[in-house]
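in:
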C-alpha cells in the first residue's frame, strides 16, 4: 500500500503533469479562454461599479430605469448573472475534459467535435450550474455584508467552511458529467466516493496550485508597486497587467480541469467500471 507521502507526491506530480500538458497542447487554453472572456464582457456591461449588488449599469438611461427596482429584484438579477456565467463555464469545461479524456486514450477530436458531443449534457450542466451560482451569490453577499457581532462572524465562517466542504465533495462532478451518463444526485454521490479515495492526492495537487499562484502573484505585485512611483501610463500598465492575469487565469483553470481528469482516470484504473467512457 502506498504511503501518505507517496500519495502526496503522486498528487503533486499529477498537478505538474497537467500544467506541462498545456505546453504540449496550447489549443486547450481556448476552452477556458472563451468563457473567461464572455464572463468579463458580461460583467463589464451589466455590473454597476458603485453598487455591487446591482448588475444593471448599462447606460445612464438603463441605470435610471433599474434604479426604481427594489433591492430583491437586483439580487435576482445578480443570481441570474451568476447562473448564466456558471452554465457557460461548465459547458466549456465539460467539453475540455471530454476531449482530454479521449486524447488520453489516443483518440483525437477537435474543438468543434468536443463541443458538439456535450450538447446532450446541457440538462445536467444546468442542474450543476444552479448550486454554483448559489454559492457565488452567497459568497458575494457575505463579502458585502458588514458583520460586527461575534455570532454573525461565526455564522459567516461556518458557511464558508460548509462551502469548502461542498466544493471538495463535488470535486469530480465535472469529469463524471463529461464521461458518464448518470442522474444528477448519483453524480454527486460518486464524486464524494472518488474524493474520499483520492483525498491525499487532491491535497498534494492543490498545494502545488496554491504555490504556483503565490509565486506568480509576486512579480505582479512588484510591478504594480513599482509603477505607482514611476511615470508610466496608468492605462497601459492596467492593460498589461489585465492581459497577463487573464492569460495566467486561463492557464491555471485549464490545468486544474486537467488535474481533475487525470485523478479521475487514475481512479478508473483502480476501480474499473464498464459503463465509464
Amino acid at each position: 500500500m502506498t504511503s501518505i507521502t507517496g500519495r502526496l507526491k503522486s498528487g503533486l506530480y499529477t498537478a505538474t503533469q497537467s500544467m506541462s500538458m498545456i505546453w504540449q497542447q496550447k489549443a486547450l487554453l481556448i476552452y477556458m479562454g472563451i468563457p473567461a472572456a464572455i464572463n468579463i464582457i458580461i460583467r463589464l456591461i451589466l455590473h454597476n461599479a458603485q453598487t455591487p449588488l446591482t448588475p444593471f449599469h448599462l447606460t445612464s438611461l438603463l441605470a435610471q430605469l433599474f434604479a426604481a427596482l427594489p433591492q430583491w429584484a437586483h439580487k435576482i438579477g445578480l443570481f441570474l448573472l451568476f447562473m448564466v456565467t456558471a452554465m457557460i463555464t461548465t459547458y466549456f469545461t465539460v467539453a475540455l475534459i471530454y476531449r482530454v479524456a479521449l486524447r488520453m486514450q489516443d483518440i483525437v477530436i477537435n474543438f468543434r467535435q468536443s463541443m458538439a458531443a456535450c450538447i446532450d449534457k446541457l440538462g445536467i450542466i444546468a442542474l450543476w450550474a444552479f448550486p454554483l451560482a448559489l454559492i457565488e451569490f452567497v459568497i458575494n453577499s457575505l463579502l458585502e455584508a458588514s458583520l460586527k457581532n461575534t455570532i454573525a462572524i461565526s455564522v459567516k465562517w461556518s458557511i464558508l467552511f460548509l462551502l469548502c466542504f461542498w466544493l471538495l465533495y463535488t470535486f469530480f462532478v465535472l469529469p463524471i458529467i463529461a464521461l458518464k451518463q448518470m442522474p444528477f444526485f448519483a453524480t454527486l454521490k460518486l464524486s464524494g466516493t472518488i474524493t474520499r479515495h483520492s483525498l491525499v492526492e487532491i491535497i498534494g495537487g492543490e498545494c502545488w496550485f496554491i504555490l504556483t499562484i503565490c509565486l506568480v502573484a509576486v512579480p505582479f505585485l512588484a510591478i504594480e508597486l513599482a509603477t505607482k512611483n514611476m511615470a508610466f501610463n496608468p492605462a497601459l500598465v492596467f492593460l498589461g497587467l489585465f492581459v497577463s492575469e487573464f492569460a495566467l487565469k486561463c492557464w491555471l483553470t485549464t490545468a486544474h480541469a486537467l488535474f481533475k481528469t487525470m485523478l479521475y482516470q487514475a481512479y478508473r484504473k483502480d476501480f474499473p467500471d464498464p459503463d465509464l467512457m
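note: Residues 180 and 276 are 5 Å apart (CA to CA).
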